[in-house]
Amino acid sequence: GNATSDPTATEPANGTTTSTTEAAGSDGHVFGEDETLIGGSIFTLQYAWFLGAQEGMEKWAEENPEAKVRFQFEDSQQDIQTNISNLENLVAAGAKGIVVFPTDSRAIIPTMVDLHKRNGTQFVVGDYPQQPDDPADAVWNTFVGHDMVALGETAGQVAVDYFESAGKKDPTIVYISVPTSGEVSIDRFEGFSKVVLEAFPDAKIIEEGDTGGGDRNSAQSLMENVLQREPVIDLVAGHNDAEVIGAYNAAVGANRAAEIKFVGIAGDKEVLQYIQDGNESWIGEVLQDPVVLGYTAMDALWKSMAEGEEMPEQYDLPKPEAITPANVADYDWQNWSWLG
Amino acid sequence: MTTATATYAAKSTRFSGGVRAFVNEWMILFLFLALFAICSVTIDRFLELGNLMNIARQISFLSIVALGQFFVILIGHLDLSIGSAIGLQSVLLAGLVANQGLSIWVALLMVMLSSIVLGMVNGLFVIYGKVPSFIATLVTMNVLTGIAFLYSRGLPISGLPSWLNYLGMGYLFSVPVPVYLMVLVTAACYVFTQHTELGRSFYAVGGNADAARLSGINVKFIGMVAFIICSFLATLGSIGLTARTMSGSATLGDAMLFEVMTVVVLGGTSLFGGRGNVLGVVLGAFLIGVISNAMVLIGVNTYFQWIVKGLILITVVLIDVNSKRK
Amino acid sequence: MTTATATYAAKSTRFSGGVRAFVNEWMILFLFLALFAICSVTIDRFLELGNLMNIARQISFLSIVALGQFFVILIGHLDLSIGSAIGLQSVLLAGLVANQGLSIWVALLMVMLSSIVLGMVNGLFVIYGKVPSFIATLVTMNVLTGIAFLYSRGLPISGLPSWLNYLGMGYLFSVPVPVYLMVLVTAACYVFTQHTELGRSFYAVGGNADAARLSGINVKFIGMVAFIICSFLATLGSIGLTARTMSGSATLGDAMLFEVMTVVVLGGTSLFGGRGNVLGVVLGAFLIGVISNAMVLIGVNTYFQWIVKGLILITVVLIDVNSKRK
Amino acid sequence: MSAVAQEVTPQEITTTPLVEIRNARMEFPGVLALDGVSFDLRPGECHALVGENGAGKSTLAKCIIGENTLTSGELFVGGQRVPKHYDVRDSQALGIAVVHQEFQLMEEMTALENIYVGNYSKRGPFIDRRAQRARAAELLTYLGVDIHLDVPVKYLRTAEKQLVQLARALSQEALVIILDELTAVLPENDIENIFRIVELLKRDGKGIIYISHRLDEIFSVCDRYTVLMDGRHIRTGDVTELTKPKLVELIAGRELSQVYPTLNPPDDDVVLQVEGLTSDAFFDVDLEVRRGEVVGIAGLVGAGKSELLLAIFGDYKVKKGTIRVNGEAVSMTSPRKAIQHGLGLIPDERKRLGLNSALDVRKNATLPSMRKFKKWGVFMDDEAELRKSYDTLESLQLRYSNLWQPTTKLSGGNQQKIVIGKWLIADTEIFLMDEPTRGIDVGAKSEIYRLIAALTAEGKSVILVSPEIEELLGLSHRIYVLYEGRIRDSFEGDRLNQSEVMTSLLGAER
Ligand SMILES: Nc1ncnc2c1ncn2[C@@H]1O[C@H](COP(=O)(O)OP(=O)(O)OP(=O)(O)O)[C@@H](O)[C@H]1O
Ligand SMILES: Nc1ncnc2c1ncn2[C@@H]1O[C@H](COP(=O)(O)OP(=O)(O)OP(=O)(O)O)[C@@H](O)[C@H]1O
Ligand SMILES: [Mg+2]
Ligand SMILES: [Mg+2]
């Protein structure tokens, strides 16, 4: 995006509320003294995982009452246009800073640039790395997020560990992706296959795209059909837990759950319960903690916005973790409210 | 006089048709059979009993929900809210058991009762409020989604008694339990629409509401009943799907609306009301089920699946539609 | 003679029923104004110029796409494929520039031409193939999604010339550029439907295709034109949205279909064809835009937004529908 | 009131009116449809309800069946005042059946079902189709007609649909039967059949309200008559004390001296020539129309008259044959082409084929001639269009309140005037008229007759299809008889008389 010639940007309609081209604060707003409205633009509330991110942001506010922040969360419903409108409307509502969980790696950039230039809105991007064509367009203060590839890699590692211990040289793997999730799905799959194929070049990885609803039910139907086609399957992984649990349910229905191992991704209580209960089909769940993500993103936003701290281009978060039968006892997962 | 009578009779015979007319009328059946035959011959594991049971099971709840929608479409309306109703009922069912600690039976009863209320709300807006059903049910769709998310926070709710899974995944004499349910609902709907006065009234209302009213049919009552049946069968489907996935999920029905609509229209139901057939709807569901299944068995690339599915569908419909007499 | 002239005046006056008839006819306008007034008074930042421009910009492309759909609905059909067409055209536009290295002008031209082909494909299935538009466009919807994903693998495509962003984000005399586009398209559609022979024919075809044909209207031609306009305006919307996001995305139009349908129906267009109004459609878009905006300005919890939005919508439609003369 | 009614003696039963309306007033928004009408129907009588188009006949009928609610006045059925929320179901329960003027059928449902919908025979909770079919067969025999019962009614011909409506009304075994222009779409031979049935019903003590614009029928079957005009009650009396001119005068409010105008002789040049036209409904039709000529086409139901007109108009698939307009061979592939060549069709089913209910009066009237009202080449010239519509519709004496008003609110006859009007505005040279006077009152009929005469005087030509032989004889220069899709004969000059045409029409050996 490039500069626009909008007079409203330089001549606010009534000097008091609309901000100027300079950084927030110059319109008389004093951070810490006045209440500060912080927007949270959430990718979707369909996935409980993002509730964790929201929770993390709220946790930060609780711990820092002196900041006097008030949150307003808006759901993008995985839609680019909703995401854009929400950002604009949040700024209109007076948000000084926004933590954005974008819907893809590009589409929201021009809007952020525009809002930043005209209203001085401060951004922190969460979860989804942004790739601006022009480095000048990177108007956000920092990126706080996980590496989707790493998530797939960690899942791949769980699979590799299992194949090694089981002594399988040429395992057959079904990976259920969600094509409509675009990059995320591709990244996770690539991370997964890279790790597996490095360790087992002869592994056969069958990618199945769920073109249905991308939920348990559609995954289950898909897997029922795949089971019919594939006489041998050693392991199933997938884009997220809805897909993998759906596949698991299908395997149970076909009486083949015992011969197949499952790796969950992204967090569902049910999987952890299976692992804790010693269900042999489940060999691991790969997780990132969204609460830490949300907390860190908010922290970074505040520091850069109110305290003028320089931020690195990217905040590194802890690597994704693999919860396995061996270490499940170490986790207090029952109390993670964001776990689906 | 006699000549005139004779002409009537003679002219009318052209409509009475014989085999040809039957084939044309039921083209969708023959297209389904053709597709089935092709799949049987060309795809290895297609004809295995297990696979056929797979297909049947996969479309069971879809059919049930579609049959509900069928009634609403038959009277010339639409119910867009079924998808979110399925989600809401699913989290309600699971939530009442897991969070409120109610017995599953009480939960089931409450969910069914609430489905009737839901249907009535839609009916009130559309039939009494005269709001176009598209808008009215779009609104309830959004409101129900809101409630479902408020209640569940978007989290899947587990904790259902494990026997419930039998409803969704169990077998009885090597036939999946959902298939029995589907057969039962289909038979009931068939008899209802073909052989009872109330059932026929849906056709009358959809065909010509004014004429129906002038024939002494309580058009508003029929309208309400249609929305209630729709909501009820959606809830039945929701219960089944919840039992199948063993968790309450607010998004369980998200993909359902379009599938349901496809099935209903594919089965020859007119979106303008008055024309359609219970068996056609179920056939439509089978057709969709077979295509999806075959696609995976052959191993068609995911992206191509969209395209291939589309091309098969349009071919089927083109033949079906153009075989019908004008 | 003088009396005859007097009667002519009386019989040719549009709203001979006085103010009352006018208000009833344009209830949606007054409801919009009422909502607008309420928002202005109760919500702090609502009436700021910047915010109003926000709203106008947010609904610009929605209106344009909705106006396209309006024509299809006006003749009693539906185009479900617009959402995926928007996605496909978006990746095509960006892809032709970024991957194929074509000039943006050539890419724009190709995308526009392809939109006409697309509209013709839909038209061929529906108008000549007699496939119900619901099914036909559902199929193209899936096929287009498949192609868009095949082409882009679901990845956003960047590399558009930066000036393009002006189309989606720029300002001219403190009014966003998309708003000019919307006004232009609306004015063109208005004049077209109200004051040209071709435009008026859409109403005739939608109201009664048989009667239209027997009055010399080329019903099939009108049908094709409707689908082409729809596809073309969807593509215009897609170009605008792509310019706004500066990247080609296959999922760009995913949420569009329902919004577009809501807007069109909210604006008083009958899904059965023959009735509706260009200005109503744009009003519908404004209504939706104001509600969404107000919701965020007030800071309504996201879950509640679904519910509150729904309740406002149903109230508006209830009043609107029931104020109309029978 | 009810107490009295419960203690009626047998004599009183026969004298209590089956239906009685006192001082009825009924308003539609902006229209006073009934204004102080009183009416009663006695057992065993056939009571004619007559009046101009829009006089309020159908409205009165609809009030009796509870479809419309009286604004004021009283309605008694069987001597009892009807309850407050009297509706269609109540009237059915009270034994009132009706054949509506506009078809009220479910097009997708079979004839059988249309007869019984809302009133099925049942065995337990289920519909007893066998019993129903048996009853329907009996009914049809009683009616003396044969209709294929298992065909969706959309496949039936207009006359057959009407008979289905009649069968439906009779199946209810009602005490009161309202026939609202039943015969408008029936051929003459069926009408005699209707008379027979009416007589049978009268003998059973039932009451019939007979609404018709064909005045001869009234003298054939009706006992009393009531005339309405502009919603007002003009007169009720015995038919025996009436003559046809007197009745016409009561209806039209003026004397109509001569029903059929005298036509100028046609020119010699042939404007339309059809040769060997063949389709699946008619075969090898040769026909010619000269400038200023009215050519009648007579034929039984199903003879293919409508199809022939449609084919000439480019809307029915022909297998072979040529059509020449002004000597030039034209391939009539669409109505659009036909219109360009100066043809205009007034179809038999005006609701389905003639009018667009979503459009207003003006837009309906100018539908085929929009291109005539252009400003700057592209835009519609609203003013000219309104003006022209106004002038034309006024010249047809259309009763309407506003050019922007939807056509659905107009009475049937007035709707037909709009259909005629649109071809006048389109400057049509050759009018194809398929039963143009169907459902039109005497006054309007004679206006249309005069219009036809005026058109031919201007050098325009008309092909006229009518089920009424008398009308054809009175208006045509020449008559073709179509029999089972073939032109069997043509009559002009001396041979143009009722008996010759009838003989040919009914298919008796020549
Ligand atoms: N639903 C309606 N809304 C408004 N006005 C109506 C309606 N129905 C009828 N009218 C008006 O009421 C008057 C009486 O109409 P009605 O149909 O009773 O006439 P009619 O005597 O049956 O005429 P016809 O011989 O043409 O059938 C007319 O002026 C007509 O325009
Ligand atoms: N809906 C229909 N579909 C197919 N064929 C039809 C249909 N209606 C009539 N026909 C056929 O067309 C021919 C002519 O029928 P139609 O009743 O229109 O004749 P008509 O001479 O115009 O009679 P009418 O006196 O009703 O105008 C007959 O052979 C009849 O079987
Ligand atoms: Mg009438
Ligand atoms: Mg005819």
From TrEMBL, chains B, C:
The keyword NAD does not apply. Keywords: Cell membrane, Membrane, Transmembrane, Transmembrane helix. The keyword Heme does not apply. Its main location: membrane. The chain crosses the membrane at residues 26-47, 59-82, 102-127, 134-151, 171-192, 221-243, 255-272, 279-297, 303-321. Pfam families: BPD_transp_2. It is a multi-pass membrane protein. InterPro entries: ABC_transp_permease. CDD domains: TM_PBP1_transp_AraH_like (cd06579). It is found in: Cell membrane. This is Ribose ABC transporter permease.
TrEMBL record, chain D:
PROSITE patterns: ABC_TRANSPORTER_1 (PS00211), ABC_TRANSPORTER_2 (PS50893). Keywords: ATP-binding, Nucleotide-binding, Repeat, Transport. InterPro entries: AAA+_ATPase, ABC_carbohydrate_import_ATPase, ABC_transporter-like_ATP-bd, ABC_transporter-like_CS, P-loop_NTPase. It holds the Pfam family ABC_tran. It comes from the Bacteria. Residues 19-255, 265-509 form the ABC transporter domain. One of its GO terms (molecular function) is ATP binding. CDD domains: ABC_Carb_Monos_I (cd03216), ABC_Carb_Monos_II (cd03215). Signal peptide: none annotated. PANTHER family: CARBOHYDRATE TRANSPORT ATP-BINDING PROTEIN MG119-RELATED (PTHR43790), GALACTOFURANOSE TRANSPORTER ATP-BINDING PROTEIN YTFR (PTHR43790:SF9). This is Sugar ABC transporter ATP-binding protein.
